[in-house]
User: What shape does this take?
Amino acid sequence: MLDLLKRSLAPITAEAWQAIDATASRVIKSQLTARTIVDFDGPHGWQLGAVNTGRLDIPKKKSDVPWGARQMLPLVETRMPFLLNQMEIDGATRGCEDVDLSTLEQAAKQVARFEESAIYLGFADGGLGGIIPSTAHKPITLPPQVRQYPEAVGAALEVLGRAGIGGPYALVLGSKAYYPLMQCVENGYPPRRIVRDLLQGDILWSPVLDGGVLLSTRGGDFQLTVGVDFAIGYAGHTREQVELYLTESFAFRVLEPAAAVTLKLPA
Amino acid sequence: MTVSYTEPHDELPPAVREVHRAITSLVEELEAIDWYNQRAAIATEESLRQVLAHNRDEEIEHAVMLLEWLRRELPMLDAQLRERLFHAGPVVEAGHGEPVASGGAPAAGAADLGIGRFKKGS
Assistant: This one.
């Protein structure tokens, strides 16, 4: 039975599919943090088109029979094409261990970052509000000295605590904050350990953030709904090349805007 | 039957301990399936037989959920299940035959990369 991905039509051996899928999975996972800390609902398959918000849009115009239209949040479906060289992927069946899948790796990075960005920063064109644009709190500026990061994290935790948002918490940082924090040692003791003790949770690196965000991972605050989880489908081929695509369908909702605090880089 | 640690508990990383918990639970569920299946086969009172068969089927559901969790955690299990399940013909040759038609659309997530929600820590 042919499914929408049409993988069985592709001139690709089982060994090559295994290499393609494993590479895609590895690269995608390396770029994702958001789905590891928000509520993950799914995968529900191709047929899920929208998330029920449970709300009504009431028209301003009066009607003899009062009515409202149900609000739904549509899923965004990505489809990122890429080309692979036929001879190169055939090499996987011959035992080649360094098959050139660089085009796949690039596409995998892009689709993963698209999801990551939509969750943290929002995707207005698709109707998805992100954690950072939705937060109910003023941002906290990270101090210029990395050794002072625990103070900023403590301040952010206090904001969440005052708002009644319980832990555990996670701290997600972009490259400019994450790597300095990982490398810093102050008086023989790394500030990252103090931060981790404060959080009782993980410090994560995200490729889509400039500063960072501190959020509760207690559950019930942020919801990622996945229709089709990351998958690879077949589009067509010539003698030399096979065109595949990476696809995913998802929606994201912030249910509790008070459950996250943005951390800005200093000016 | 219980499945115990064979290596020092304190030296095992948390992810390995979680897998151990799931495997232990899976063993318990499989045992329960066997017990209910035997009792349902010999129960003489029909309504009791129905209850026992129902319970067996519930345990099957539990076992499959645990198997699915393990599939997401263990890439080799994922690869083997994808290769060996849902094929017609001899079991030892499964993976080389035609997939069994399920009579409906493939299950959600059946052909995806199996990424789902995973753990990431620093």
Observations:
- Residues 9-93 of chain B form one domain.
- Residues 100-109 of chain B have pLDDT under 50 and may be disordered.
